[in-house]
Amino acid sequence: VPALALSSSADAAHLHVQLIVPAAQLNRGASSNAGLYFKLEPGWHVYWQNAGDSGEPPHITWTLPAGVTAGSLQFPAPKRLPLGPLMDFGYENEVLFPFSLDVASSARPGPVALEAKVNWLVCREVCIPGKAELEVDRAIPATPAQVAELSPDKEIYDRLVGQLPTSLPSTGTAVFQST
Q1: Tell me: the pLDDT tens digits for 158-170?
Q2: How many CB atoms lie within 10 A of CB 79?
Q3: DSSP per residue over 117-146, as a string?
């Protein structure tokens, strides 16, 4: 039986999931943008980091080469997803969970495989657990180089990364009022 090569994306029940790494290569001593992307069928959703009354956010377990680490998933502002008396929080249509890929100065140059086991819960009136093993292959050059970006990944990343909440400026104030 021939071995199946892992892919950067997978189609599963009610969604498409993909690892997004716009950089064509990863420089030692630098960070690169990356993300976990979901494209959902109409009416289906995945969850925010605090899912609400039910649900569970996506989760990644990494297998990375020495000297490469992945930051935590960042979660865009969610949508309220009421279902009867329950209130959940999550995402419909499409969502990108950005994270950073950090390469140590001591990382070995050459090709690297970034392997991720991804788990999620996709829901409508019922929830279906899903999982995929994804892989993105990149190279670490011996000397830092100008990094080109791959257009399909760059387009998705650039279009969706702006949905992350921004911090309140240090000179700003917030006031909470009860109504």
Answers
A1: 999 987 777 777 7
A2: 14
A3: EEEEEEESSSEEEEEEEEEEEEEE-SS--P
Task: Give the span between the Cα atoms of 30 and 94, in whole angstroms.
Answer: 29
The DSSP annotation for the chain comes to: -PPPPPBSEEEETTEEEEEE--BSS--TTEEEEEEEEEEE-TT-EEEEEEEESS----EEEEE--TTEEE-PPP-PPPEEEEETTEEEEEEESEEEEEEEEEE-TTPPPEEEEEEEEEEEEEESSSEEEEEEEEEEEEEE-SS--PPPB-HHHHHHHHHHGGGS--PPPTT--------
pLDDT at 63: 96
Cβ contact 58:78 at 8 Å? no
What count of other Cβ atoms lies within 10 Å of the Cβ of residue 26? Answer: 23
pTM for the predicted model, two decimal places: 0.88
**Of 144, 38, 146, which is closest to residue 92 (Cα–Cα)?**
38
Q: What is the CA radius of gyration of the chain?
A: 18
Task: Give 23-73 pLDDT, tens digit per residue.
Answer: 999 999 999 999 999 999 999 999 999 988 888 999 999 999 999 999 999
